[in-house]
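Q: Two folds, back to back.
A: First:
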Amino acid sequence: MRIGWLGLGNMGLPMAGRLVDAGHEVLGYDVTAPARRAAASRGITVADSVADAVTGADAVFTMLPNGAVVREVLVEHSALVRAPARAVFIDCSTIDIADAHDLHTAAVSAGRRFLDAPVSGGVGGAAGGSLTFMVGGDAEVLATVRSLVQAMAGRIVHVGGPGAGQAAKIVNNMMLGINLAGLCEGAVLAERLGLDAATFQSLAAASSGDSWALRTWYPAPGVVQSAAVNRDFDGGFAADLLAKDLRLALQAGERTGTPLPHATAVAEAMHDLHERGHGGKDCTVLVRSVAGSW
């Protein structure tokens, strides 16, 4: 298939690369020159514009920072109408539920099909093709692109109608943020109690303290290969992006009358990281705040 891909950052690039590996023709576009160079080295045909990337596409994926950028690309840059009528649009960004509903409506108005399909699994999952896709929209539309998505996925879950994918992702990432805060506090406390980091991580991973974050992001050097602490917290899931996801969760909490005190505390911690100038670092840099080791 011919695929248009918009957004070639830490997640978008390896995801698009998986489609190249599966034999698809991928035309990608990103606003930054480094991302375009990296895409070219991965076998992606780099387009000169949004319009060029979606021309002739059977499917168009977006993996962008927020709802405003997705709207800008699909609506203001007219990607929805520049792609062929057969094209299915699959937004893998994490955006507000209301924005997802608006994009579904805009796609229908343009005579196009749209799915909100945010993902979980991080950069490692994107590179390894093991992401979980949380899909909102028409199940029949998903069926037409399931084999395509499967090249990037370990699991594809249809969670409901328009916006349901974003609802699931927002709740999931809120829980991740809360787990992350506990992980960072636990890692520092374990170290100060004299426990060997690798031994404790292995024990906790087989005990009630287990979590996905503990198994993949343990914030002590040399314990978990995939952890950003081994790269001076570069790459991975930026603190600013987690902060954005937590804001979306808190907004949903306000709309539904749901108290979210723990999510509020983690959102404040992410804001503090931003104020310190570390918002671009992986969110596990929170461990330095806990340890007071700036």
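A: Second:
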Amino acid sequence: MTDGGGLDDLWFRPLNAARQDAPLLVVLPHAGGSASYYRPLGALLPEVEVWAVQYPGRQDRYGEEQLPSIDRLADEVAARLSSQAAERSLALFGHSMGAVVAFEVTRRLEGLGVAVAHLVVSGRGAPDWTPPPGGPTDDDALVTELLRLSGTHAAVLDDPDLLALVLPAVRADYAIVREYRASADARVATSLTVLHARDDPLVPAEALDGWRDASSGPVSFLAFLGGHFYLVERAAEVADVLRRAASG
């Protein structure tokens, strides 16, 4: 389903009102996250048109079946972007789970002949990095994890009804993140910027090294103060990075 301007509003949510000839930045959420998470970031980028991806199984797509893998998510997003953004200057940004989804979308777009001007990834080890075993094993542990990472509003986690709406998406996303494995030769051709937080409990410094080999183009690294969801407190700084990435 598309609106009058051709935007697939099932998968993409416009976050600002930039001019139509502005560079396009597509942002992909973290595990359990939704398009609305990026609305404050979109407001900081008036000179860039920002679309946020809305994954199935959350908010207004709550009743839809969630996709079973990172690869399937990337297939769906890339197929739509290949027709809607082929003639535009396009950059992608993903945080945490969204980082590897953005990486896989970029791979697919490049394979279809759609140029991506810049890929920015955040809060995630390289595609070939295997997170340590373990992690939340039940809902109580999952809620404890979400509280520790501060990526979900505490009021949501304290409300049983809201929690019941949020947890299925979180569980499903954590599962596909655990199962995701990129091949050792998986890489993109575009410029790649890797953002990370100095105190991120999920992403040790050594997990970032593989990003150097994830692109045949220039690769740069930027560190920020904060934890896994540093981009909330550092929104203006992250917006500056994304503005430069999208504008070339």
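Q: And?
A: The CA atoms of residues 202 and 240 lie 24 Å apart.
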